[in-house]
Amino acid sequence: MEEYNEFIEKDLHKENKLLILSIFPISFLIFGIVYSFYEYTGIDGVIEGLLFIFISPTTLLTDFLKVGGIGATFLNVAMIGFFNLYILKHFKLRINGLLIAAFLTVIGFSFFGKNVLNIMPIFLGGYLYSRYQRIPVKNIVLVIMFSTALSPIVSEITFGGFFLPGYNYIMGTIIGVLIGFIIVPLSSHMLKFHDGFNLYNIGFTAGIIGTVFTSFLKNFNRDILPVSIIYEQQNIFIILLLLALFIYLVLIGYFINKDVVKQYPRILRSKGRLITDFTVLDGYGVTFFNMGILGLLSLTLVLLLGGTVNGPVIAGIFTIVGFGAFGKHPKNCYPIIIGVLLCGLLYQMDYSSTSFIITVLFSTTIAPIAGTYGVIIGILSGGLHLTLVNNVGIIHGGMNLYNNGFSGGIVASFVVPMIDAFKKESQ
Amino acid sequence: MKHELKKVCRIVDEMLTLLLHDTTEVDFKIINRDEKVIIHILGYNTKFDDEYIDTLKIILNKQRQAEVEEYYWQLAGETESDELVLVSAMVDHATVEKQDGNLYIELIRLYT
């Protein structure tokens, strides 16, 4: 079994854990407001920016920092963060590693793709599914949080010019509800495809749905193509904010468990395959510490590669940090990243481009492959991931925000049975 | 709940995988009642040491988590490596004991 490590730490109530997570939306809210005044855009500018974000089709890659400005984007992120925290609190969910991963993933993607309007129909669809199947809503909330990866479909249908004004809102809502309705059974089923070696399973599921949906539209001669609207300026204040948040996580980890530094190496022995919940196996102290370390390392890597810390990059970093509670640690991530970097060198890619940087970050979706089969297989899988990820986005037309999850699912389902074919049965 | 019987089968599959890595002789008895299902497992001549059995007890008694179960239950029993954290998310109570050199496990899953 995944290694269970005995730990002694401060007993945290559910409210304490929610409070720890709430620092993210709170700090984003304050940052957004303060920055809007710093930029002299003020409240009017923020509202205008939010409107731009709401009416954007939001397909990959639509960076909200570019579309709506910094103040509006951070307010959008804060609102989505508070909404999701409310959901967690309302349904009395136990704050485990998976929910932490879901929360921070949603937070991250609120910088590019998710806004408070386009996620709502999907939540409504999930609610209707739970009523229809007579299962408690709390059982499916987690999947719905992740499944907002398909929120660009809602925005694209509503604001992409497919339908006459008035009907567009109805159709966008209907499609969003439909997605929320079908994604729960689909996502559970898709796990078998990659045997849990792809951490962003909803990304794989959303890729399949996006492909079906885009193919459907293509048959009506309506093409949906990925876009590239990216914020290109390096903003030192955003970097400092991220730095502060990751140091905060490290300190929280230390506060909860004073032996965290001594116990941290034990987490590195974990394979990380689904489901590896570090809050269960190693405790909250080590988990938050791991998340902070991953955040600091990810941010450092982005800056070393010469990348801009913009919306998609922040999403990549936050997804790594989130899954630092649910399977990822530096040791199972680095072989994948090396594989992507080496393959990028081979393909003569621009290391500092946003599209390459986010592939580097999101490629860690297949970290369990490196954790299970070692460094060499991890490096090869990372290279394969880069090869695929640049070619699968076109299939779903950028409708699936977790494009790397889609690619990662394909890589895992290709690599794992191959390893099995070569592996001899041990007696 | 949907797929209730299949979920029980997956738990059994997962536990059987674990036990067959330990011993060559295993008994399973499954009692399916209206309000709960009880899974009795007996692994003869266990080679698991006391420390491992204690860990097993801790892991299997982590709180049941409906949202984890709903999403991941189809992973249980899928591969040769075990998914005990997943099993723990699918059961309400676990008894794990070593008696006369045999490993005795009882899992209780309430129908909600």
Structural description of this entry:
The complex is a heterodimer of chains A (427) and B (112). Chain A has helices spanning 14-38, 42-55, 64-67, 70-90, 97-109, 120-133, 137-147, 151-159, 167-194, 201-218, 236-256, 260-267, 278-281, 283-304, 311-323, 330-346, 354-362, 367-373, 375-396, 403-422. With 427 residues, chain A is mainly alpha-helical. Chain A has 2 domains: 14-218, no CATH class; 236-419, no CATH class. In chain A, helix 2 (42-55) crosses helix 4, helix 4 runs antiparallel to helix 5 and helix 5 (97-109) runs parallel beside helix 7 (137-147). Chain A is globular, with a radius of gyration of 20 Å. A 4-stranded antiparallel β-sheet of chain B has the order 1-2-4-3, with helices on one face. Helix content of chain B is 38%, strand content 28%. Chain B has one domain: Heat Shock Protein 90, CATH 3.30.565. Chain B has helices at 4-20, 50-60, 66-72, 84-90; strands at 26-32, 36-43, 93-99, 102-110. In chain B, strand 3 (93-99) and strand 4 form a beta hairpin. Chain B has 112 residues and is an alpha+beta fold. Chain B is globular, with a radius of gyration of 13 Å. The A-B interface holds A 1-2, 4, 93-94, 96, 98-99, 133, 135-136, 138-143, 184, 187-189, 191-192, 195-196, 271, 273-277, 280-281, 372 and B 1-2, 18, 55-56, 58-59, 62-63, 65-75, 78-79, 81-86, 88-89, 112. Chain A: The chain crosses the membrane at residues 18-37, 69-88, 100-128, 140-163, 169-187, 199-216, 236-257, 278-303, 309-326, 333-349, 355-380, 401-419.
